[in-house]
Amino acid sequence: MAHNIFKGLGIALVTPFTTDGNVDYVALKRLIEYQIAGGADFFCILATTGETPTLTKEEKQKIKELVVDMAGDRMPILIGCGGNNTAEVVNELQTGDFSGIDGILSVCPYYNKPSQEGLYQHFKTIASATKLPVVLYNVPGRTGVNLKAETTIRLARDCENIVGIKEASGNLEQVDEIIKNKPDTFDVISGDDALTFPMIACGAAGVISVIGNALPKEFSRMIRLEMKGEIESARKIHHKFTDLFSLLFVDGNPAGVKAMLHEMGMIENILRLPLVPTRLTTMQKISETLKFRL
């Protein structure tokens, strides 16, 4: 029986670009080492924060190989593999190179708005196309569809390699319902930095974090304290972060965290269209908040 190994602080890894728009593999190596040293527990690569829709097939393969080479023997690696054409996702799972990968993160089909039964059949088909553990990804704000708690539970019960869900619905009632009714082998992982503290209090197993790119040490400390039951100390860190959370996402993700990493001297502040960097006013606020809050 498969179980979830993606616990604690997962990093939703950004893709740094050079000023001429190519993938900056030197900066990527620097980031990976920095995050491992900062207490990251696993990596989540080639997903939303990595600007994956704008990467070529060759770039994706090279990023995957680099992360596996650098981190594969040190921590689990979850890779994004999803879409709104079920047959295409199945084909990718059956023909792609998943060597060194420990699990698949698969987002709800976006744009074509399937019913709950459609979502169930989609994920059931995907799970049966791979031997790897599958983590569902529910993010209604991006996909236009919500994977309801009862559908998540049904998938968790019916597909033994579906081991968890990255929940970014922002609905704590839904999160709580999943945690209350889920099988023991299945975990809920926060997909929203700002809600990680309350979600872990409800019983979530960790987070796939955006802010962890820049501040892994502080964020992993909050998670570890909370999981040990040191709620008061964890809450203090959570409250230190709250201003940053809103600044990080006001101009979209990963614009905010890239601005922050640039401010820290880690990467160039470059995104690929259709995404653009944060506004100057946001950048200044991020800079001020970084100086005073942490």
Helices and strands, with pairings:
Elements: E1 8-12, H1 25-37, E2 42-45, H2 57-71, E3 77-80, H3 86-95, E4 103-107, H4 116-128, E5 134-138, H5 140-143, H6 149-158, E6 162-167, H7 172-181, E7 187-190, H8 196-202, E8 206-209, H9 216-227, H10 231-250, H11 255-263, H12 280-293
Parallel strand pairs: 1-2, 1-8, 2-3, 3-4, 4-5, 5-6, 6-7, 7-8
Helix pairs in contact: 1-2, 3-4, 4-6, 6-7, 8-9, 9-10, 10-11, 10-12, 11-12
The neighbouring-strand order within the major sheet is 1-2-3-4-5-6-7-8
What is the percentage of strand-forming residues?
5-15%
Q: Determine Rg (CA atoms, Å).
A: 18 Å
Derived from helix and strand composition plus strand pairing, the structural class reads: alpha/beta
Percent in helix: 40-55%
Biggest beta sheet attributes: 8 strands, parallel, barrel
User: How would you sum up the global shape?
Assistant: globular
Low-confidence stretches: none
* Separate helix tally: 12
* First-residue to last-residue Cα separation: 42 Å
Order of helices and strands: EHEHEHEHEHHEHEHEHHHH
- Strand elements, count: 8
Please outline what is shown here:
The chain has 294 residues and is of the alpha/beta class. It has twelve helices and eight strands. The relative contact order is 0.15.
Overview of the molecule:
This protein is α/β, with parallel strands linked by helices. The chain contains twelve helices and eight strands. It has an eight-stranded parallel β-barrel, surrounded by five helices. Strand 1, helix 1 and strand 2 form a beta-alpha-beta unit. The N and C termini lie far apart (42 Å).
